[in-house]
Amino acid sequence: MIKYKLPLLLLLLPFAASLHAQQKPALSWKDLSKWNYIRSNTNSMSPNGRWMAWADGPTEGDLQLIIRKTLDTTSFKYPIGATPTGASFTKDTKFAAFKVSPKDAEAKAARKTMRPTYDKLMLVSLPGNEKTTFEKVRNFSFSGESPEWIVIQFAGPENASRDKDAPKGTDILLYHLATKASYNIGNVSEFSFNKAGTKLAYIIDANGQNGNGIFIRDMKTGLTTAIENDKASYKGINWNEKGDAFALLKSNKNEKYKEDVFTVIGVHKLAENKPHKVSYSGIDQAGFPKNMGVSSNSNPFWSDDQSTLFFGISSLEKKEEKKTDSIAKVKTDPAKAKGTPAKADTVAKTKTDVKLATPVNKADIEKPDMIIWNWQDKRLQSAQQTQEIRDKNYSFLSSYSIADKKFSQLADSNMRSVMVAPKQLYAIGYDNSSYELMSNLDGQSYTDIYLIDLKTGMKKRIFEKYYSSGRGGLNVSPSGTWASYYNDGVFYSMNLATQQQYNLTGKIKSSFIDQLDDHNVSKPATPNFGWSADSKYIFIRDNYDLWKISADGKNVAAVSDNWKSKKIAVQNKYRIYPDEKGIDLSKDQYFGIFNTENKKSGIAILEAGKTNLKPLFLDDNSYVGFSKASDAKVFAYVKQNNQKSPEVYVTSSTTISPAKQITTNTPDQEKYAWSSGVKLINYVSANGDSLQAALYLPANYQEGKSYPTITYIYERLTDELNAYTMPGFPGGGFNKAMYNSNGYAVLMPDIKYKLNDPGMSSVACVVPAVKAAIATGIVDEKRVAIHGHSWGGYQTSFLITQTNIFKAAAAGAPLTNMISMYSLIYWNSGGTNQAIFESSQGRLTPGYWDNWDAFARNSPVYHIKKVQTPLLLLHNDKDGAVDYTQGIEYYNGLRRLNKPVVMITYRGENHGIAKLPNRKDYAVRMMEYFDYMLKDKLAPDWWAKGVNRLDMEKHLDERAFEAEE
């Protein structure tokens, strides 16, 4: 027997070793600090499509920028410090430039000592990789479509004054890329190239305003022209699209006014090399409103024909006039006094009796510190406080006609929102002043819409009490002569010259009411993709198919061929031509497509001159970021799925196939256990609705084995079936990738809501989803937990009052009492929650006084005695979305009933956790809690027995030390 045991053991050892080698470790929270990934917002492609750039690096620490050829594997890597940044390319792609920030350790040390830090600029030649570095850089820009120059603006001295009136100018360097010749210009506060890069406009802002002004440099000849010099400040250079005119603002001190007085300056006729300047301040000029001035908070711009300047105006407060003392000496003329009898109380005192009244200083008067809330206020006082700076800086759009020197105020205190239409023939004005109060109460938005003829100044109301909820508003054509709008389930068009209206979709046998929008909005619209470039057609989607409709509605054609029958929706249009105005049908146009049934997605093409969309591919991936090189037929897109992180693919084929992967994202993923995939579950809710749920499988999943499961809820989530979850420290604590890696299945069901039953709707949808998931055998019915944050936190808090299917729950920032929450304030905006309840996510209307049963029926606190599920509650004390009292109320109710609950509060944090140490802490605590509840691990002390306030500092020190080890 002994003789055979040893060979048998030896035979089993390689097999056991093989199994051990296959078992990859789970990703831990400590690993996340080193997790390397691409920062998606740094992706950029060169104009000729031959180079791509992106930044990657660890979650914490220093990053690198990668510039790589798209045609081969040539690539360069550059350290860029702790701040992610992208690269800019010259028009000819011979050079790239990017900022380099301080290293992570340097930045942290500087923050502790309050020392300033500075960025560098790295200039790289391609493909030679010759590097030139510039220190202490604030800003830079290549010379537009001209590939010859780069302008670099340097930071000011450390001891520079930070006073608002201090000069803002610093040195700029004009660097010629080919010859490396450079030219320094001092005291520049702002600079901007025109589109062609042939002219550079810049502003001088120097000490004592010496030499201040606006200048233009011809980049070919080097000739510099002073457009204006003055003891003034200038800002806001805004070039027109052609690059032959620009506008800006000038400010001067004025003894009559408390603030600077601004002038709008327009510079044009630059194509003729004879720049002409127009200045307009409006002050004391005919037609200009009193107590108003040119606003400093809006950028002025030219009309296309350079006949008109558009700019904002705002209130301008005069200084108070000095007042004489109310009691003064009275000199009496004896001769006049004899003939002028005086009343006893008005007789002048003798010289020795005269007393001067002591002037009263207003600043010395003690005033009450108070707020008056009036029921007639259109906006709550809290909203007015939150939006005070915006209100003070609000600009009313106006215009100045150059030829006849005529000023026109387009927007006013009632019609605050005015949009200038393309070609500047018309403007569209929105006046909701008559409906603003009610809109802030019930969330239903109405407005009066005006058509403004910019040539005559005539204003005409074209819609009264237009319902603007659910994608309401006018969409003006590129020609500026047509507009489309939506009303009561139908899209219409209007000829702006005649105001003739046309029905666009009423005759189409399809619904243009969004079938998935279950908010309390009347007939919400499906998407309007906009006008063709020639303004002859408009593209509007029903719930699936895209329609091409003539401007007058007489010709209608489906661009997609009955895709509804296949459950394929035209999801979006990709904007890949930077200067395109409208959908240019002479060019290939690309659209995102999506199968609502199996969640496959892809890209379709509407070829130039063709009438039908052609799918290029549709598969089990998610596609985002589709783009085109500006000067070449080179296309890039980002592809991802649940298991594979987002990667950039590049192709020169208009059919987008074949494409080559050029990035390597998340290189460490292979080292760790990862989700084994995802299953889409179809089920029927308790309300009889056919719904779906996504069940993400744990790492090392074995068929026939059941697993602890986290049910994560919000609203509809399955459309993100193929989206990748990047491991990280989230603001709400939960990260799907982390839980899958650590052996949890994750269930994400869709929720469909019935008006006046948001909580009961979640029960009707989530409980059947959990049961359907359990029926697959993957979910261990005895080890299912639930988690949600914000609206998901509310539903989590409510679900545990209605079902005991969950062994544990974690609710972040939950609404818990719909009655008290209804009239509380959404502090981030200052508005009340009433509008959110009645027309948006709350889905309860009208107020609880007329709907008490529904409010109580859907409030967790009113069913609190039925809670048997342990709850981890997160609510921060500065939550500006869901009032902190909602968490306190639920916590104290559960505590009073001696039910297991722990509430965590991060002091100073808002609705989501922002500070990295807090995000780390909560992510770890949540998993500790679920590991205890669902995996039978030891209960963490903070859950089992709590932490005494006096011991909190020690507790936090110990946990921080453990995290660093």
UniProtKB/TrEMBL annotation:
Keywords: Hydrolase, Signal. One of its GO terms (molecular function) is serine-type endopeptidase activity. Residues 1-21 form the signal peptide. The keyword Plastid does not apply. This is S9 family peptidase. GO terms for biological process: proteolysis. Gene3D superfamilies: alpha/beta hydrolase, Prolyl oligopeptidase, N-terminal domain, TolB, C-terminal domain. Residues 766-935 form the Peptidase S9 prolyl oligopeptidase catalytic domain.
